[in-house]
Specification:
The protein has about 950 residues and is of the alpha+beta class. It is built from 32 helices and 42 strands. The chain is flat and about 125 Å long.
C-alpha cells in the first residue's frame, strides 16, 4: 500500500477522500448496525446462535460477538475499499466497506479474533507516511496539509491481543474526545430490538448491563412468533416468510396490529421510507451503503406470497394487511403498495360466508316462527303414533336460526371459504342473521366479522363489490319466497335503518301483497287501516299480513295515516287520469280532515268539485265563501265560488287542505327540472338562475292581483308564515316576481328603496306602505338592493341623477356613481341597452350638460376644479363610470402645473411627512415631498383655472401646503 501511495500520491488523497465520504454519508449513524451485521454473518457461518456484547471500558468501546472468527478473506476485505468478504447468499456483507462505520467514533481500532488480531490507526498511518517520505499531493514536502487526514482502514498492523472471554471476535474502539459515550450507548440500546428482528442469526444483544434476547416459535400455518425481551418490556411480532421477503406484524394484547410507518429493511434499516401495514425485511439489491435501492431493483417481486400471508392470519385480522389509501412516502413505497394491492386483489384469501345448507322446510318454518310469537301446539293428528316423524316445530326452528348455531357462526376454515376479493361482495354492517338469509341471493359474501364500517376502506382498496342497501333492495325483486321469509328479512334489515338515507336506499325493497303479487317499494303499500273510520282507499296496496313488519312503516309504508295516503303517487296518477271520479273525491276529502295541510301536495288541487254555477272545476280554481283572497283579485280572475253543498258535506279545513282557495296558494316541488309549474313569467325567472334549484317553493296566481290591491296583498303575504318566508328569499320566484311586476302607485317594488336603506336616498322613491315600511325583515328582499344592479334599476338611477327636481347629497351621488360603475366593471350591465339621459349629476349636486362634465379619476384635481364640472364616483372604477356616462376623464382632458416654489425634501426626513402618513394612513412613499407656504397650481385644457390648493401630486412628487409652527412655544 505504501509503495502504491509513493508511486501515486494522488491515490493517497483519493483513498482518504473516499473513506471520509463513506463515514460522512453512507455509514453515518450505522456503527452498531454494521457491527451487528458482521456478528450475524459470523453466527450464520458458524451455525450458532449469535451473541453480541457492547461495553464501555474507560474511553474504549468494546463490541464482541460469537461465531466464525476473522479469516484471510476478512483481512483483505477490511483493507480494500468497496470490497467485501461476503461469500454466501445468507450473509449481509462480512467485514466489507460497512466496517468504515467505526471511523464515525474512533481513529484507533483493534480487531481482535481467536485467529489473530489487527490494529488500524490514523497515527500509525501518519508515522508510516513520514518514515517512507510519502508526500501529500499539492503540499510542500515538509508540511502536513491543513484538513487532510490519511485513511485509517487501508493499513493494518498485527497486535498481540485476544477477544473477551466467551467471544470469537471483538472490536475495540478508542473513542475520540468529541464522542459522547453515554449518548452513543443510548442510541445503541434504541437499535437493539430492530437488529434482532432484522438479523435472525443474531439472538442476543447486550449493551453494558442491558440485555435483549429474541426467541422464535412456530405457530403453524407458516406463521412464526418472534419475541424480543428487553429490560423494560417484551415486544412480539408474527412473522411470515415469503419467497423474497419476511413480513412482520406487531402484536398488541395478543392480536396482530398494523405496523407504524417504517423503512425498507434489507435486511437492516435503509433510507427508503415505507407506509405498509407490515414490516418488510427483504432480499433486494441495495447500494453499497445499504441506504438506497440499486436502480432497476425488482421491488414488485417482493409482493409475491403476500396474499398467502393474509390467508395464514385469523380471518378477523386479515384486512389489516391491506394498504390504506394515502400518499406514498417514497417511490419505493408507491411501487410496493401497488404491488401488494395487486397481489391481494388477484388471489383467494378473503373470508366469505359459507352457505348454511339448511333444508327449505326448516328455513320456512323458522321464518314462520319469527312471525308467530306464540305458535299453536301440534294437533292430536300431528302427534299420533302412526304418523311420520315431523319437521322441527317452528318455535324450535326459530331458536336454532337465532341461536348460537353453525348457521351464523360459519368461519372460513378451508379453501372453499375464501374468495378472490374482486369476485366477492360486502355489505357494511352485515349480521349473522342477514348473512344466512342472503347466502343464496348474493355470493360470495364477505363474512360479518370483516363487514364493519371500519373495514370499508380496506374492502374498497381490494375492489370488493360494495353491496349497498339500495342494491340489496334491487336484488329482492322477483324473489319467490314465502311471506314468513320476507318477515325474517325485514327483521334482519331493521338494525341497518338508522337514518333517513338508509331508509331511502331501501326504497326499492320488494314487498309481498295479500293478493299474491310482489311489488317494489314500501312507500307504495299500506300496512293496515288505523283510521277512526273506514275510508275506501282504492289506490293503495295492502301488505300480506304475515309479512307486515314494523320496518315497512319506517321505510314509508302507509299505516293509513291521512298524510301518507294523500301523498301516494298512485293517487296522483288516479287524479291525472280521472280527476272527476266522485269516489276518489269523497275518499280524499274525508282523509283530508285528519291531515296536516302543510304536509299535503299541491297536486291534490286536480280534484274536480262542483262550483256554485252547477259546473265542476279543479279544487285549486275554486274559492270558499268569504275567502279574503277574493277581494284582491282582478275582475276576470278564473276563480269561482264552490258549491255550498260541498262545504256543508265536508269541512272548510278539508277543502282548504286540498287547494280550495282561501288565501294565496303555494306550489312546492322537490328537484324541479324546468319552468313547467304554470307560474306567471316563470321562464324569465328561471333564466336568471345559475342552476336548477333543489326545491321550488313559490306563491301562485300573483299575476291575478289587482294593482290597486297590492298594499293589502302584501299585508296578507307578510302575515302568513308559509308565505312570509318566501318574501325573504331574494333569489326565489316569489321575491323576483314581486320586484319585477308588483307595483305601488305605478312603481315596481324593485325600484323602491326601503326607508332604512340610504344608499339611493333622494333618488329612488321610498316604500311607504303603512305598517309594512317598518318590517324590514319581510320587505327588504322585494325592494331595490344596492348590491344587485339590474338594467331596470340602472336606468331609473340614471334618470333620477339627471332629474333637477331630486336633491341627493354629494355623498349619495358619489356612492350611486360608484355602484353603477362597479356593475359595469363586473359586466352586469350592457351599455348598448341603456339610454343615457341628456344631463348628468355633478359632484356639487347640480344637474349639468355632459359637454361640461369630466369624470374625476385623479382626486387631487378635485381640489382645483369646480365641483359643478366634476362627476365623481370611486377612483378605481372611474374609467367604467366614464364609459357608462360617455364622459371624458379628467386625466385625459386637463393638465396641471405647480406655479409656486417650495422646499424639496423627502417623506422620511421631513417630520410633516411622518405626520401626514399617519394622519391619512398612507403607504410608504418613494417620491419627493415638496412643502409650500402657498401652493398654487395652473390647470390647462378643457378647464383653464389657477387655484390655491392644500395638496397636489405630480407623478411621484407630492406637494403640500404647510404652515410653519412658530418656534419656542410655551411649555407647561
Amino acid at each position: 500500500m505504501l509503495a502504491a501511495w509513493r508511486d501515486s500520491p494522488t491515490r493517497l488523497r483519493e483513498d482518504a477522500a473516499t473513506e471520509a465520504d463513506l463515514v460522512r454519508a453512507g455509514y453515518r449513524d450505522r456503527l452498531l448496525t454494521e457491527l451487528a451485521q458482521n456478528a450475524a454473518d459470523a453466527a450464520a457461518k458458524a451455525g450458532v446462535a449469535g451473541r453480541l456484547a457492547v461495553r464501555l471500558d474507560g474511553r474504549g468501546l468494546r463490541i464482541a460477538n460469537t461465531g466464525a472468527p476473522l479469516d484471510l478473506s476478512g483481512v483483505h476485505a477490511l483493507t480494500a475499499l468497496r470490497a467485501s468478504g461476503k461469500s454466501a447468499g445468507t450473509t449481509v456483507g462480512r467485514f466489507g466497506v460497512g466496517f468504515t462505520a467505526v471511523l464515525s467514533v474512533s481513529d484507533e481500532i483493534d480487531l481482535r479474533s481467536v485467529t489473530g488480531s489487527l490494529r488500524f490507526s490514523r497515527d500509525l498511518t501518519w508515522d508510516a507516511l513520514r518514515q517512507n517520505d510519502i508526500r501529500i499531493p499539492d503540499t510542500p514536502a515538509d508540511d502536513a496539509p491543513a484538513g487532510f487526514a490519511p485513511p485509517v482502514l487501508r493499513m493494518a498492523w498485527p497486535v498481540d491481543a485476544a477477544p473477551a472471554d466467551g467471544f470469537d471476535t471483538e472490536v475495540v474502539l478508542r473513542l475520540r474526545p468529541d464522542v459522547d459515550a453515554a449518548a452513543l450507548l443510548d442510541a445503541m440500546r434504541a437499535e437493539a430490538v430492530d437488529l434482532l428482528l432484522e438479523l435472525p442469526a443474531l439472538r442476543h444483544i447486550g449493551i453494558e448491563s442491558v440485555e435483549f434476547a429474541s426467541t422464535v416459535t412456530d405457530l403453524g400455518n407458516d406463521l412464526q412468533e418472534i419475541r424480543v425481551d428487553g429490560p423494560a418490556d417484551t415486544a412480539m411480532w408474527w412473522q411470515y416468510r415469503a419467497p423474497r421477503a419476511r413480513w412482520l406484524l406487531p402484536l398488541r394484547d395478543g392480536r396482530p396490529t398494523v405496523a407504524a410507518p417504517d423503512v425498507l429493511r434489507a435486511p437492516t434499516r435503509s433510507d427508503e421510507e415505507l407506509s405498509l401495514p407490515a414490516l418488510l425485511i427483504a432480499d433486494i439489491a441495495m447500494q453499497p451503503d445499504r441506504r438506497r435501492l440499486l436502480p432497476g431493483a425488482r421491488l414488485a417481486e417482493l409482493a409475491t406470497g403476500y396474499a398467502d400471508f393474509a390467508r395464514a392470519l385469523p380471518p378477523r385480522d386479515r384486512l389489516g394487511l391491506v394498504p390504506t389509501p394515502g400518499f406514498a412516502r417514497s417511490e419505493a413505497d408507491g411501487v410496493l403498495r401497488e404491488a401488494l394491492v395487486r397481489e391481494l386483489q388477484t388471489h383467494p384469501w378473503l373470508p366469505v360466508v359459507v352457505p348454511a345448507g339448511v333444508a327449505d322446510r326448516t328455513v320456512a318454518d323458522a321464518a314462520a316462527a319469527l312471525f308467530d310469537p306464540e305458535p299453536q301446539a301440534p294437533s292430536a293428528e300431528e302427534t299420533s303414533s302412526d304418523t311420520e316423524p315431523s319437521a322441527p316445530h317452528p318455535a324450535q326452528a326459530r331458536a336454532e336460526i337465532l341461536g348460537d348455531t353453525a348457521l351464523f357462526d360459519a368461519t372460513p376454515t378451508d379453501s372453499s371459504d375464501v374468495a378472490v376479493p374482486t369476485r366477492a361482495s360486502a355489505l357494511t354492517g352485515l349480521t349473522d342473521e342477514l348473512a344466512h338469509l342472503l347466502d343464496d341471493v348474493v355470493g360470495p359474501l364477505v363474512i360479518p366479522e370483516l363487514s364493519g364500517r371500519g373495514r370499508s376502506e380496506a374492502l374498497g382498496v381490494l375492489d370488493v363489490h360494495r353491496l349497498g342497501l339500495a342494491r340489496l333492495a334491487e336484488l329482492t325483486s322477483g324473489l319467490e319466497r314465502p311471506p314468513q321469509w320476507w318477515y325474517a328479512l325485514y327483521d334482519a334489515l331493521e338494525p341497518f335503518v338508522v337514518d333517513p338515507l338508509a331508509a331511502e336506499e331501501l326504497g326499492a325493497l320488494a314487498v309481498p301483497l295479500a293478493d299474491g303479487r310482489l311489488v317494489t317499494g314500501p312507500r307504495t303499500v299500506v300496512l293496515d287501516d288505523q283510521l277512526q273510520v273506514a275510508i275506501p282507499v282504492h289506490w293503495a296496496r295492502l301488505v300480506h299480513p304475515e309479512a307486515a313488519h314494523p320496518l315497512l312503516a319506517r321505510l314509508g309504508a302507509r299505516s293509513a295515516t291521512a298524510e301518507d295516503l294523500l301523498t301516494d303517487p298512485a293517487l296522483r296518477a288516479e287524479l291525472e287520469d280521472h280527476p272527476d271520479d266522485p269516489d276518489t273525491a269523497d275518499a280524499v276529502l274525508r282523509l283530508a280532515e285528519y291531515a296536516d295541510p302543510a304536509a299535503l301536495p299541491s297536486w291534490l288541487g286536480l280534484i274536480e268539485l262542483p262550483d256554485a254555477d252547477g259546473g265542476s272545476r279543479p279544487a285549486d280554481e275554486l274559492l270558499l265563501p268569504d275567502a279574503p283572497l277574493r277581494e284582491l283579485l282582478v275582475e276576470d280572475a278564473p276563480f269561482r265560488p264552490i258549491d255550498p253543498a260541498v262545504v256543508e258535506a265536508y269541512s272548510a279545513q278539508a277543502l282548504r287542505a286540498i287547494g280550495v282557495g282561501w288565501d294565496f296558494s303555494v306550489v312546492v316541488e322537490a328537484d324541479p327540472t324546468g319552468p313547467d309549474h304554470d307560474l306567471d313569467d316563470e321562464d324569465a325567472w328561471w333564466s336568471t338562475l345559475p342552476e336548477d334549484p333543489p326545491e321550488l317553493v313559490a306563491i301562485r296566481d300573483l299575476d291575478l292581483v289587482d294593482e290597486a290591491a297590492w298594499p293589502e296583498a302584501l299585508w296578507q303575504l307578510a302575515s302568513a308564515p308559509r308565505t312570509r318566508r318566501l318574501l325573504t328569499d331574494r333569489d326565489g320566484y316569489t321575491a323576483w316576481w314581486l320586484r319585477t311586476h308588483a307595483r305601488i302607485d305605478g312603481t315596481p317594488l324593485g325600484l323602491l328603496r326601503h326607508p332604512t336603506d340610504t344608499e339611493f336616498d333622494g333618488l329612488l322613491s321610498t316604500f311607504a306602505v303603512p305598517g309594512l315600511a317598518d318590517d324590514a325583515a319581510a320587505m327588504r328582499a322585494i325592494l331595490a338592493d344596492p348590491a344587485v344592479i339590474t338594467p331596470e334599476l340602472a336606468a331609473v338611477l340614471l334618470d333620477a341623477l339627471a332629474d333637477p327636481s331630486k336633491t341627493p347629497t354629494p355623498e349619495v351621488v358619489s356612492r350611486t356613481h360608484a355602484t353603477l360603475a362597479a356593475a359595469v366593471a363586473a359586466d352586469h350591465l350592457d351599455l348598448a341597452d341603456l339610454d343615457l339621459p341628456d344631463r348628468v349629476r355633478a359632484l356639487s349636486g347640480a344637474v349639468v350638460d355632459p359637454a361640461q362634465a369630466l369624470v374625476l379619476d385623479q382626486p387631487w384635481f378635485g381640489l382645483a376644479l369646480p365641483p359643478d364640472r366634476l362627476v365623481a364616483g370611486d377612483i378605481d372604477t372611474a374609467p367604467e363610470l366614464a364609459r357608462l356616462l360617455d364622459l371624458p376623464l379628467v386625466s385625459e382632458s386637463v393638465t396641471a402645473q405647480v406655479l409656486s416654489a417650495g422646499r424639496r425634501t423627502t417623506w422620511a426626513t421631513e417630520p410633516l411627512g411622518v405626520v401626514l402618513r399617519q394622519l391619512f394612513s398612507l403607504p410608504p412613499q418613494t417620491g419627493e415631498l415638496v412643502l409650500h407656504d402657498d401652493l398654487t397650481v395652473r390647470v390647462h385644457g378643457a378647464i383653464e383655472i389657477t387655484a390655491s390648493v392644500p395638496w397636489w401630486r405630480d407623478g411621484d412628487t407630492v406637494h403640500v401646503r404647510a404652515v410653519r409652527p412658530e418656534a419656542g412655544g410655551e411649555s407647561g
